[in-house]
Automatic annotation (TrEMBL):
Keyword Phosphoprotein assigned: no
Family note: Belongs to the glutamine synthetase family.
Tagged with keyword ATP-binding: yes
GO MF term (any one): glutamine synthetase activity
InterPro entries cross-referenced by the UniProt entry: Gln_synt_N_sf, Gln_synth/guanido_kin_cat_dom, Gln_synth_cat_dom
One BP term from GO: biogenic amine metabolic process
Name listed for the protein in its UniProt record: Glutamine synthetase
Organism of derivation: Aspergillus ochraceoroseus
Length: 476
């Protein structure tokens, strides 16, 4: 629908009476409403007012401990401008095919993208490389746990967890069985329902299988243009949660829902292509004198892009690991990277290089393996593109040697810088006055998103956990 116009949309909505609209907040959550077709057609070109409080409160609608600039008491939680993106038109198959559009959030005075609008942040990052004649292609992979809601009623899960430990929530299937052909049959209607709904909702799944862990599944989304991939990745979660609700299943995209088991990753693949669609990371003939053998088939552009990601990685961690729980996944020996590291076909590294001689030239790309499934895909892609392009502009050198195949901790020892071990350390690096995050995204975004993460950390520091109670209530 890239050529969609208000006129073509009128024709597409000929038999409809209602339209669903949604934007994306900093946590990657869809925030929207159902409107009449008459209302939609009246705002389709100029946009409409949307309460800014979605950028003034957290994922549970609690206003931030420290009020931030976009939405606060002093500005009366003013309206911001929401403008429908007609190219995002699709229909929701599990809701009687109601028409659906994503919106972008703009500053009502300047009509420029709001600094914290996830869709605007991706657009800004892609605009820089687009001006140089390149396009970014991306693919997303998500692992997530599935729990069977008590009494097969997904809406009762929150109540159940208030009264019971999370361990009591039954997994969709038991045991460790990655790539099983029989486990999906246990919940066949749900399993194929998710796949088919994604196809109909234009966030197509390329591969869909069980992962190692009780009730754990993994989906690889069909690769495409980076801006569209960010949208599709966010909408994929919407599909999974919606279809799950109809089957009494609660999916969890938490980075680490269960102690002692692997966490949920949200790996992102990235490559750049020229205007004719050819992969810009390809080196047609191997470099006889590469800085490292791993990059013999990687173009100079690709090397600079890799260097940019690696150099900036420590400073943008809240964008890849945004919650307190994110850092429970990023620990040694649990199939998650913990340092600034990379390597050819190395799944323990922060950045896995996929290129010849182990893959076809046209498939040359980077897989950034730090993000968890809890991350906002728009922020993940914006960060990867912005850091990579910074490397290109500055012609940065790859800062660390490739990870040896025998190393399984993401760069243990002195080869790689240890990534933040917790959200507090990540926020400190992100908001530092000289951080690379400020250089590529500007102070306005860093101050806002950093403030939202400080709120998350503050709530955690004030919380009394079940672990503390079990350990100390009787013994101290």
């Amino acid at each position: 629908m890239s050529l969609a116009t208000p006129e073509t949309i009128v024709g597409l909505l000929h038999n409809d009476t209602r339209v669903k609209l949604a934007g994306i907040d900093v946590d990657g959550l869809l925030r929207g409403k159902l409107v009449s077709k008459k209302k939609f057609l009246s705002i389709v070109s100029d946009g409409f007012g949307f309460c800014s409080v979605i950028f003034g409160w957290d994922m549970h609608d609690r206003t931030y401990v420290r009020e931030l600039a976009i939405s606060n008491r002093d500005n009366g939680y003013r309206d911001i401008l929401a403008v429908p993106d007609l190219s995002t038109f699709r229909r929701i198959p599990w809701e009687d095919n109601v028409p659906f559009f994503l919106v972008s959030f703009l500053d009502p005075e300047t009509r420029q993208p709001l600094c914290a609008c996830p869709r605007g942040l991706v657009k800004g990052a892609l605009g820089k490389l687009g001006a140089a004649g390149y396009r970014a292609m991306a693919g997303a992979e998500y692992e997530f746990y599935q729990f069977r809601a008590p009494e097969r009623n997904a809406s009762s899960t929150a109540t159940f967890l208030k009264e019971n430990p999370v361990e009591a929530l039954p997994s969709l299937t038991e045991g460790m069985f990655g790539y099983s052909l029989t486990r999906p049959v246990h919940n066949q209607d749900w399993y194929y329902g998710v796949f088919d709904a994604c196809e109909q909702f234009n966030c197509e799944i390329e591969g869909w299988h069980t992962e190692s862990g009780p009730g754990v599944f993994e989906a690889a989304l069909q690769f495409g243009e980076a801006q569209e991939m960010a949208d599709k990745a966010g909408l994929f979660k919407y599909v999974v949660k919606s279809i799950g609700t109809k089957h009494g299943i609660t999916p969890s995209f938490m980075a680490k829902p269960r102690e002692g088991l692997p966490g949920n990753s949200g790996h992102m693949h990235i490559s750049l292509v020229n205007q004719d669609g050819t992969n810009a990371f390809i080196r047609p003939t191997p470099d006889p004198n590469p800085p490292y053998p791993d990059v013999a088939y990687l173009s100079d552009l690709g090397r600079y892009f890799l260097a940019g990601i690696l150099t900036g990685l420590p400073d943008i961690m809240p964008m890849l690991a945004p919650t307190v729980n994110s850092y429970k996944r990023l620990v040694e020996n649990f199939w998650a990277p913990v340092t600034v590291s990379w390597g050819l076909e190395h799944r323990a590294a922060s950045v896995r290089l996929i290129s010849p001689p182990t893959s076809s030239p046209k498939s040359t790309r980077f897989e950034v393996r730090v993000p968890g499934a809890d991350s906002n895909p728009h922020f993940v892609l914006a960060a990867i593109v912005a850091l990579g392009w910074r490397g290109v502009e500055k012609k940065l050198e790859i800062p660390v040697p490739p990870l040896s195949k025998g190393e399984d901790m993401g760069g243990a020892g002195d080869k790689g810088v240890r990534l933040a071990k917790n959200l507090g350390a990540a926020i400190a690096a992100f908001t530092h006055k000289d951080s690379i995050a400020r250089e590529v995204f500007g102070d306005e975004f860093v101050d806002h998103f950093g403030g939202t993460r400080e709120h998350e950390l503050r709530l955690w520091e004030e919380a009394v956990t079940d672990w503390e109670v079990r350990r100390y209530i009787e013994t101290v």
